[in-house]
Design a protein that fits this description.
The protein has 280 residues and is an alpha+beta fold. It has eleven helices and ten strands. The longest helix has 20 residues.
Length: 280
């Protein structure tokens, strides 16, 4: 489920992207760590011994620090796609930044203490960074590690500012607006084969187009069209894994142009659909 990349001596990026057909429990027993996790898609309940339970839904960020071995578990609910970006930072990095907030966490760990921030709503800018990290194809392209390094450090800065109440970007959606935006996402999740436009989807959930366009991006971390395309590509990949032809899979999930499908599949998955089919 996870792709782990070391982008520097003291920074690692973990990208989880998978579809679960059933609930699973992940053992969280491990050594000292400092991590920032951003949940893009998933629903889980996180338990760390001695700390309150945390429900981690899509759009949640989690900041976690502990000095020594800790234990716990993460119950991830099945029947859904799981996309999480987890950034790991070593103690030396925390101290070198010169940021009092980070050095304080490092000192707390060194003194034997543990620090845990329960989940907080990830601001739109943090969701966008996490989507950028999750979307970069696995390759040996020059500059890839530098890109991941820069985005990981930026994500940490945005998360700390969010915890300190530093305003970034647009206002959070009001409860009624948020409910309609979540309804729009649910409609796309179950009916992604349909030719949805901003105008049609906005009418469907009774919201104006501007609110849908910007509110969806802020809440989900992706524009409506990008989210819909990702759903279709994931569905096509599942069909191809099952032995369906590339052409039939493309048409089945809503792509009318096979050449466009092949191009966007390669950009998203890092290899052509035909090669994906051979490796299934």
């Amino acid at each position: 489920m996870a792709r782990i990349e070391s982008v520097a001596a003291d920074i690692a990026v973990v990208i989880v992207d998978a579809f679960l057909d059933r609930d699973i429990t992940v053992d969280l027993t491990g050594a000292a760590t400092f991590s920032l996790s951003v949940v893009l898609e998933s629903s889980s309940r996180l338990r760390v011994d001695g700390l309150p339970l945390v429900d981690a839904e899509a759009g949640t960020a989690l900041l976690y620090a502990c000095r020594g071995p800790a234990s716990g578990e993460d119950l991830i609910r099945g029947g859904q796609r799981v996309r999480v970006v987890d950034l790991r930072f070593e103690e030396g990095f925390l101290i070198r930044t010169g940021d009092a907030r980070l050095s304080g966490l490092a000192e707390s760990r060194a003194a034997g203490g543990g620090v845990f921030r329960s989940g907080f709503p990830a601001p739109a800018s943090l969701l966008q960074i996490a989507n950028d990290i999750a979307g970069i194809p696995a390759s040996g392209a020059p500059g890839r590690r530098l890109f991941l390094h820069g985005r990981a450090v930026e994500a940490l800065g945005v998360a700390l500012d969010a915890l300190d109440g530093v305003p970034r970007g647009r206002r959070a959606p009001r409860p009624q607006e948020r409910e309609r935006l979540l309804r729009a996402r649910a409609i796309l999740d179950r009916d992604f084969r349909n030719g949805w436009t901003i105008e049609r989807l906005a009418r469907k959930v009774n919201i104006n187009e501007k609110q849908l366009k910007y509110g969806f991006r802020d809440l989900v971390g992706q524009p409506v069209h990008a989210y819909l395309t990702a759903l279709r590509l994931d569905a096509a990949a599942r069909l191809i894994r099952q032995g369906v032809s590339v052409a039939d899979a493309a048409v089945s999930v809503g792509f009318g142009n096979l050449s466009h499908f092949r191009e966007i599949f390669r950009e998203n998955k890092g290899l052509s659909p035909s090669r994906f089919a051979r490796l299934r």
